[in-house]
TrEMBL record:
GO terms for biological process: pyruvate decarboxylation to acetyl-CoA. It comes from the Bacteria. This is Pyruvate dehydrogenase E1 component subunit alpha. It is an enzyme of class 1 (oxidoreductase). Keywords: Oxidoreductase, Pyruvate, Thiamine pyrophosphate. SUPFAM superfamilies: Thiamin diphosphate-binding fold (THDP-binding). Residues 23-320 form the Dehydrogenase E1 component domain. InterPro entries: DH_E1, PDH_E1_Alpha_Subunit, Pyrv_DH_E1_asu_subgrp-y, THDP-binding. NCBIfam families: PDH_E1_alph_y (TIGR03182). GO terms for molecular function: pyruvate dehydrogenase (acetyl-transferring) activity. It comes from Aliiruegeria lutimaris.
Length: 331
């Protein structure tokens, strides 16, 4: 990964930096709590944590406008929190309770919010990519100026349906940003072992889709790249590819023994590249905040997460009759 960190004094306000700090910290603490609840047996099924990748979604969301859409894979809790979905509703869905976004019937990988324009949560690798182009097709058809963020992983980028989608998105000049979250691994397989060309952002060249790579551990760099991509799409120039280079600290899912990489590799990333620590340092060295103020922010975030965990335990399990609802769309 390029070791590019914003070295010169960034041109951002205190409020903006603090906002990114809070948004990323919320994701981190929420995910840590989800990991604990999973360990306690309160969350069943699959659970893929986003810890380490927080700057990706927070940086990208910083360039969105009301009405823009997002769709992603199963590693989706961060995307939900970053677009403003309620942590209580997300956590209660993880514990399979009535107060969850899918009334406790979807779980970690199957949550949606029409209100926040979040279209899931998809467990089949790569399946959300054509769906994302479809959302963008509707926006183009309706001439509403909206952009769709279609997120997928480095592993998913090797799937055939991605290239069928690139072809159509370019042909029809759809307003879609393909965000490749390159965390260097697809389950236990490293990118080096699985991928012929390491520069995934160039994969759109054959279709005339511009692309660029960005340091996904630097929220400001991600935001700048997101603004550029959004401007491209909104001006009617068609799709754009952003390969965001990032890293996941935890296993692929909660049941991953992580034998495919060394502890030292993970620790080095945590110590040297952590996206939250990066912004914390900018806040402190720029004298935007004191240690005490940041401690108060940490507490505020911890309280929100604890409340969501409490809610997710108190909310009842769905009633038996719910087995028969939400199967077909109402006519
Ligand atoms: C079509 C399909 N094949 C295989 C799987 C099993 N599987 C789940 S996640 C995954 C790896 C995907 O890696 P990547 O796209 O890099 O995303 P990440 O998990 O790193 O976020 C695989 C192979 C699946 N869910 N769907
Ligand atoms: Mg990956």
């Amino acid at each position: 990964m390029a070791a590019r960190r914003t070295t010169k004094k960034p041109n951002v306000s205190k409020e903006e930096l603090l906002g990114y700090y809070k948004d990323m910290l919320l994701i981190r603490r929420f995910e840590e709590k989800a990991g604990q609840l999973y360990g306690m047996g309160l969350i069943g099924g699959f659970c893929h944590l986003y810890i380490g990748q927080e700057a990706v979604v927070v940086g990208l969301e910083a360039a969105t406008e009301e009405g823009d859409k997002r769709i992603t894979s199963y590693r989706d809790h961060g995307h939900m929190l970053a677009c403003g979905m309620d942590p209580k509703g997300v956590m209660a869905e993880l514990t399979g309770r009535e107060g969850g976004y899918s009334k406790g019937k979807g779980g970690s990988m199957h949550m949606f919010s029409k209100e926040k324009h979040f279209y899931g949560g998809h467990g089949i690798v790569g399946a959300q990519v054509p769906l994302g182009a479809g959302l963008a097709f509707a926006d183009k058809y309706n001439e509403n100026g909206r952009v769709t963020f279609t997120y997928f992983g480095d592993g998913a980028a090797n799937q055939g349906q991605v290239y069928e989608t690139f072809n159509m998105a370019a042909l029809w000049q759809l307003p879609v940003i393909f965000v490749i979250e390159n965390n260097q691994y697809a389950m236990g397989t490293s990118q080096q072992r699985s991928t012929s060309s390491q520069e995934i952002y160039k994969r759109g060249e054959a279709f005339g889709i511009p692309g660029e790579a960005v340091d996904g551990m630097d929220v400001l760099a991600v935001k700048a790249a997101s603004e550029k991509a959004v401007a491209h799409c909104r001006s009617g120039k068609g799709p754009y590819i952003l390969e965001v280079k990032t890293y996941r600290y935890r296993g692929h899912s909660m049941s991953d023994p992580a034998k495919y990489r060394t502890r030292e590799e993970v620790q080095k990333m945590r110590d040297e590249r952590d996206p939250i620590e990066g912004v914390r340092q900018l806040l402190l060295t720029g004298k935007h905040a004191t240690e005490e103020e940041l401690k108060a922010v940490d507490k505020e975030i911890k309280d929100i997460v604890n409340e969501s965990a409490e809610f997710s335990k108190q909310s009842p399990e769905p009633a038996l009759e719910e087995l028969w609802t939400d199967i077909y769309a109402e006519a």
